[in-house]
Amino acid sequence: MVPARRFRFEVFDDEGNRLQVIFEGRVSREKILQLIDLLELFGGVSPHPQFASSEALGDKMKRVFAVVRRRFPVGSFSSTDVKLAYEEMFGEPIELGVVSTYLARLAKRGLLERSGRPSRWMYSLRRVERAALLEA
């Protein structure tokens, strides 16, 4: 039996808030990369220099989520809708596959709801996210 591993990640955002995540059990490289994406999404920095090249990836995912929150606070939307809104908002191109990947990751993390079928996924903000937008 392989012994359980334990990793602790701790990051601080620009406002001095601390985010601490502890992984216990079998931790794969894939899970670590997903965690880093999550940390970057919430404003943390890459905790390990090896992943410095993924910082831009995290920034782009944050931008995709910002587009969703600003342009699609209610109702459903597709990857194509987000792609077009992203390019309009930021004035730079983004591949549809990149948008699709980020939306799937955001849904997996519970920030978006996904429905439909794989050839035509539709997304919407989770109710908790919509409530947060109304309070802001």
Largest sheet: 2 strands, antiparallel
Query: Which architecture of the domain at 54-135 would the CATH scheme give at its second level?
Result: Orthogonal Bundle
Please report the first level of CATH classification, the CATH class of the domain at 54-135.
Mainly Alpha
What does the oligomeric state look like here? single chain
**Low-confidence stretches at least 5 residues in length (pLDDT < 50)?**
44-57
CATH superfamily of the domain at 54-135: Winged helix-like DNA-binding domain superfamily/Winged helix DNA-binding domain
- Rg over C-alpha atoms, rounded to the nearest angstrom: 16 Å
Please report the number of helical segments.
5
- Strand segment count: 4
Name the helix and strand elements from N-terminus to C-terminus, one letter apiece.
Answer: EEHHHHEEH
In whole angstroms, how far apart are the ends? 49 Å
Helix percent band: 40-55%
Q: What integer is the average pLDDT?
A: 75
| CATH fold-level label of the domain at 54-135 | Arc Repressor Mutant, subunit A
Instruction: Tell me the structural class.
Output: alpha+beta
Give keywords.
136 residues; two-stranded antiparallel ribbon; Arc Repressor Mutant, subunit A; globular
Task: Characterise this structure.
With 136 residues, the protein is of the alpha+beta class. It has a domain of 82 residues: Winged helix-like DNA-binding domain superfamily/Winged helix DNA-binding domain (Arc Repressor Mutant, subunit A, Orthogonal Bundle), CATH 1.10.10. Helices cover 47% and strands 21% of the residues. It has five helices and four strands; from the N terminus they run E-E-H-H-H-H-E-E-H. The strands form two sheets. A two-stranded antiparallel ribbon has the order 1-2. The protein has a two-stranded antiparallel sheet with strand order 3-4. A hairpin with a 5-residue loop joins strand 1 and strand 2. Helix 2 packs across helix 3. The radius of gyration is 16 Å and the shape is globular. The protein starts with a strand and ends with a helix.
